Amino acid sequence: MPRLDGYGLLQRLRDKGDDTPVLFLTARDAVADRVKGLDLGADDYLIKPFDFDELLARIRAMTRQRAGSRVNRFTVGDLTVDVERRTAVRGGENIPLLPKEFTILEYMIRHAGAVLSREQLENQIWNYEYSGNSNNIDVYMSRLRKKIDGGREHKLLHTIRGVGWVLREDGQ
Description:
Layout: H1 6-15, E1 23-26, H2 31-39, E2 44-47, H3 52-67, E3 73-76, E4 79-82, E5 87-90, E6 93-94, H4 99-110, E7 116-117, H5 118-125, H6 136-149, E8 157-160, E9 164-167
Parallel strand pairs: 1-2
Antiparallel strand pairs: 3-4, 4-5, 5-6, 7-9, 8-9
Helix pairs in contact: 4-6
């Protein structure tokens, strides 16, 4: 951060009475740094390098704490994704997913109806060291399409040519 470090920004937020959830994502790994951040009012502190699945879990936990309730189940059409149980069910049929497939589907269902670009998906699914020079996202989207839409009349996973993908019911 060019003008103000995270501690200073957090201090300003808390001084104004702003209780926006804050998660420090930093290379500062000393115990004193973690204690300082948490004492200033951060909700969590994660040290780089980090596992992206852990980051998502920590964000979900912070969201649950703030909301006062668990928002773990999302539905689009006849597809239901239960984040806590890491399950996906379509039309009453359990869909077995690999960990990355589930992470992509979770991100898409949390943003149902929004067209998500390749870059958005890559940035959300792979950690900050990912180069983005491969066709990984295409492979995973192809697998997801087969698992979610394969053999079904009503498709939920749509390609928007030249833009990205969207999870929505037909006709939306």
